[in-house]
Write a structure and sequence with these properties.
Elements lengths: L2 H10 L46 H37 L3 H4 L1 E10 L2 E10 L14 H4 L2 H4 L3 H8 L4 H12 L8 H17 L3 H7 L9 H6 L3 H7 L3 E11 L6 H7 E2 L4 E10 L5 E4 L3 E2 L4 H7 L11 E3 L7 H6 L3 E3 L7
């Protein structure tokens, strides 16, 4: 029984109400002729209060509680309006531009609505405008771009601990020279930068994932052809687009029983999470699925991850012998190949 129904039955105080299916309370038992909203528990009309046939309910006490609730709601609304007004005022002050610098006068007109204050700006041209430099907030991908990142020594020192841009660049060239070339230099640059950010600022893995999630993207076929290793060309030509596998990692035991059952893996004797990962022949990660419970099969995870929709006609996917997805890949007019050394 809900709290509201319990209170209603208490104030009605009828012992002969055995069946409540067709019982109604008329408007004569409410101060304003109808019950109040169910969430307004301090309202005088939250439950029947007058003409009840007994004096168990003190209407004056209920009215006092209702008045206190109304005053509390009014104070809350005034505080919200004051906070909104202060935020609008501070944003207007921050957006002001002096007439001497730009030759423009900004006139703000405020219009009061039910949703708040809407500010409209009108620009009155007084003198010909002059060109000025304004800072533009860049996206994460532009911020971590090699040329943009190496444009400021203080930024390099804060994020990496190295004092100069030239020192960071020379360190990158020394460490990554055996691996990278002009075509995939950006990938190794971002990988190198992730390591430095983790060592310098101890950023959480989730934070790094949000910052750099744009690094995982599906490549164009021309990029795959240009970077295809010779060993793949000798065996499969230039048709291999992905090498797939599922990765499992141990997690804390969930408190929810369903989640605990879905993540329990018997042969590992632990609760695990499983993700589907795809990489191109060059070794760059190109697709990562959402995490699933460790008990899910590789086939089910692959089919429901969205990976198959990225395949084109004639593509070849390499997988371990445990992946029984040849029919699903064939529906996308692609082919699944299992290398001989993975067949056991």
């Amino acid at each position: 029984m809900t709290e509201g129904r319990r209170v209603w039955l208490s104030v009605i105080s009828r012992d002969n109400l055995l069946c409540l299916e067709n019982v109604y309370v008329c408007s004569n038992h409410f101060e304003r002729g109808k019950p109040a909203y169910a969430m307004k528990t301090f309202d005088v009309d939250w439950a029947p209060c007058i003409n009840l046939g007994h004096d168990k309910v003190n209407v004056s006490t209920l009215q006092a509680a209702s008045d206190r609730a109304i005053r509390t709601e009014q104070r809350r609304q005034r505080m919200e309006e004051a906070a909104t007004s202060s935020s609008v005022a501070s944003s207007s002050v921050g957006a002001q531009v002096s007439e001497e610098d730009t030759g423009c006068v900004f006139v703000n007109e405020g219009t009061q609505t039910d949703q708040g204050v809407l500010c409209h700006s009108k620009t009155v041209q007084t003198t010909p405008p002059q060109t000025c430099n304004v800072g533009v907030q860049t996206d994460d991908w532009n911020f971590f771009d090699e040329k943009v990142f190496l444009s400021n020594d203080s930024k390099v020192h804060y994020y990496t601990g190295l004092t100069k841009c030239a020192l960071l660049l020379s360190t990158f060239e020394f460490v990554m020279k055996p691996f990278c070339n002009g075509e995939i230099r950006a990938f190794y640059w971002h990988s190198f930068l992730i390591v430095l950010l983790k060592l310098r600022l101890n950023l959480g893995l989730q934070d790094l994932a949000y910052r750099l999630n744009w690094l995982i993207k599906w490549p164009q076929r021309e990029q795959l052809w240009k970077t295809m290793p010779n060993c793949f060309c000798a065996c499969y030509g230039t048709k291999v687009v992905a090498i797939v596998d599922c990765y499992e990692t141990k997690i804390e035991t969930p408190s929810h029983l369903v989640a605990k059952s879905a993540t329990w893996l018997q042969y590992k004797h632990a609760n695990t999470a499983k993700v589907f990962i795809s990489m191109c022949p060059k070794g760059v990660t190109t697709f990562v699925s959402c995490a699933w419970g460790g008990r899910v099969s590789d086939k089910h995870l692959t089919v429901n991850s969205g990976f198959l929709s990225k395949l084109l006609l004639g593509d070849i996917v390499l997988a371990d012998h445990g992946f029984d997805i040849d029919e699903d890949v064939a529906r996308m007019q692609a082919a699944l190949q299992i290398p001989a050394f993975t067949r056991g």
